[in-house]
Design a protein that fits this description.
Helices cover 76% and strands 0% of the residues. The protein has helices at residues 5-18, 23-35, 39-52, 57-66, 74-86, 91-103, 107-120, 125-137, 141-154, 159-171, 175-179. Helix 2 (23-35) packs parallel to helix 4 and helix 8 runs antiparallel to helix 9 (141-154).
């Protein structure tokens, strides 16, 4: 939490000497490495976590996040799917998967991921924002505006939703509303 990554990694390494099969320690070590900008090493720790416990949804999710900027994002998709098999109600993994599908331009899959979140959490601002982004890609600007408005209603402080709402309004010619 203090951002002293070197000390934290050293502590995790000492703890792992005592408990080498502890998936939580491997996952947390990976988070620390990831935050320190050591993505490849972080992936190694996440892999050790899922090897130790294949049902570790958080480690699978983190492994997916670590792979989202790779040229080949299929392993990241598979990691998010593994997280959801381990814990189907894991909203964060489903939102991450939706975003990755959006980045991959697999718009129907992205929409399904966001709508699955909304089926259980109808006021999830991030999911509504994601729906809006998909609808913008589909050039359904009116529907996107409505989704972004729902996002802003759910969380007035979610800056990306406000920005996206403004952009959708400008696409509809409502420039004064967009500026507001």
């Amino acid at each position: 939490l203090r951002k002293d990554f070197g000390a934290a990694i050293e502590l995790y390494d000492r703890l792992l000497l005592r408990q080498p099969g502890n998936p939580e320690l491997w996952n947390e070590r990976g988070v620390c490495l990831h935050q320190a900008g050591r993505r490849e090493e972080a992936r190694g720790s996440y892999r050790r976590a899922v090897d130790a416990d294949p049902s570790s949804a958080h480690a699978w999710n983190n492994l997916g996040v670590a792979g989202t900027s790779d040229a080949d994002t299929l392993p990241a998709v598979e990691a998010f799917q593994a997280a959801l098999r381990a814990r189907p109600e894991f909203t964060g993994a489903r939102l991450n998967l939706g975003l990755l599908y959006l980045q991959r331009r697999e718009l129907q899959h992205a929409l399904e991921a966001y709508r699955t979140v909304l089926a259980d959490h109808s006021r999830d601002a991030v999911a509504w924002n994601g729906v809006g982004l998909v609808l913008m890609e589909l050039r359904r600007h009116q529907d996107a505006r409505n989704a972004f408005a729902r996002s802003v209603e759910s969380d007035p402080n979610l800056a990306p939703a406000r920005y996206n709402l403004g952009f959708a309004l400008s696409q509809l010619g409502a420039f004064d509303d967009a500026l507001r």
